[in-house]
Design goal:
alpha/beta; 8-stranded mixed sheet; 10 helices; 8 strands; 38% helix; 22% strand
Length: 222
C-alpha cells in the first residue's frame, strides 16, 4: 500500500464514528471508555473483541451474524482496519467498532469483567524463542485477557500456524484452563463452529490456496 493511500485512510478513519484512536498517554492516564463501552454502543449487549483484527473481516462477519452482540476490532495498524470500519458503516452495522491501540494495553482500555469473549485470528506466531514475549497467547497476555473477561470468559484462537496451535494448547493445559474445543484442521475434520468455517479472512484465503491447514482452539479462561 502506497504512503499516500495510507495517509488517506488515516484521515478517513478520523471521520468514522465507529473508530476510536486514543493516544498512549490517554490510555495510561485513565481511558474515558474503560468500564464505559456501553456508552459507545448505547446498549449493554455483550462485548466481543477481535485482537489483531487486520482488515476486520472477522469483526464484521461476526457482527453480521449476531446483531445482539457488540464487536470491537483491535489493531495498531489503522490503514488495515479502515476497510472493516468502512464496510461496517456502509452496511449500517451499529454493533461494530474499531480501536487503534497496542494489544499489551488492553487491560488499560477495558475494565474488569467488561468483555465476554475474545477472538485472536491469524496472529504472528513469533516462532523464535526470543520473541516469546510477543506471542499473543503467552502467559502474560492470557493474564491480561483474564483481567478484562467476565467469569468463565471465552478465548478463541484461529491460526494457520501448527506451532502456535501446539504452543497454545500445551500452555492452556498446563495452566489448567478448560479447553472446550480444539481442531488441527478445521476444513478437513468435522465439528468446528459455523463462524470458524464461514468467515474467512484475506490472509486465510491465501493460506488455503497454499494448502495450509487451519487450526482452531476455543477455551474458557477461569
Amino acid at each position: 500500500m502506497g504512503s499516500k493511500n495510507k495517509l488517506k485512510r488515516f484521515k478517513e478513519n478520523e471521520t468514522f464514528a465507529n473508530v476510536v484512536q486514543p493516544t498512549r498517554e490517554e490510555v495510561l492516564s485513565g481511558f474515558k471508555l474503560k468500564n464505559n463501552w456501553a456508552s459507545f454502543f448505547k446498549n449493554n449487549n455483550p462485548i466481543i473483541l477481535e485482537l489483531g483484527c487486520g482488515k476486520g473481516e472477522y469483526t464484521v462477519g461476526l457482527a453480521q451474524r449476531n446483531p445482539d452482540k457488540n464487536y470491537i476490532g483491535v489493531d495498531i495498524k489503522g490503514a488495515r482496519f479502515w476497510r472493516g470500519a468502512k464496510s461496517a458503516l456502509e452496511q449500517n452495522l451499529d454493533n461494530v467498532g474499531f480501536l487503534r491501540t497496542q494489544i499489551e494495553l488492553i487491560d488499560h482500555i477495558f475494565g474488569e469483567n467488561e468483555v465476554d469473549e475474545i477472538w485472536i485470528t491469524f496472529p504472528d506466531p513469533q516462532i523464535k524463542y526470543k520473541r516469546t514475549k510477543h506471542r499473543m497467547t503467552n502467559p502474560v497476555f492470557l493474564e491480561r485477557y483474564k483481567k478484562i473477561l467476565k467469569s468463565n470468559g471465552i478465548v478463541n484462537l484461529k491460526t494457520d500456524s501448527e506451532f502456535m496451535h501446539g504452543y497454545t494448547l500445551g500452555l492452556l493445559q498446563g495452566l489448567g484452563y478448560e479447553i472446550l474445543y480444539a481442531n488441527h484442521d478445521v476444513y478437513k475434520n468435522e465439528g468446528s463452529p459455523p463462524e470458524v468455517l464461514e468467515i474467512q479472512t484475506f490472509y486465510e484465503n491465501q493460506y488455503l490456496d497454499a494448502g495450509k491447514p487451519i487450526t482452531y482452539i476455543r477455551c474458557r479462561i477461569n
